[in-house]
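Posting for a labmate who doesn't have an account.
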Amino acid sequence: MNHQEKSERDELRARFTGWLEVTLYRAKLNYVKKLEKDKGMVYVDELPEELWVSENPEKNWIQGISEPGGFQFEEERLEDAFCILSEQRQKILIMLFVEERTPKEVAGRIGCSLQHVYKQRSQALKQLRNMLEKGGEGDE
């Protein structure tokens, strides 16, 4: 193989590599966009059975988790500790972890700074940990 053939081959390889990187990057963006669109979707199979008989089960289910104390925890100790938190901290945790909103979205919804959301989240989680540690001694 002479020098000219080798340089053409390297150029072709470089162009193919560039094309492949761009294609994979765009595929990744499309995949992420698709996931973001589906994030808020609730399937009927996921709804509790007692809500199926109501006229608007999706609305009732969403209202149930949006109201303070409306979210059902698997562990009673965690539910008790969560109910002790202030209403604002409850709302922030629900928006962050149940509704899967970003801290920036939460700040915009409740009309505060991004730093305030981070601080409230941190303090709420610390408060929950402390309450669970105090109440969890000898509970296992």
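Reply:
Got it, the structure tokens are right above this. The chain has a mean pLDDT of 76.
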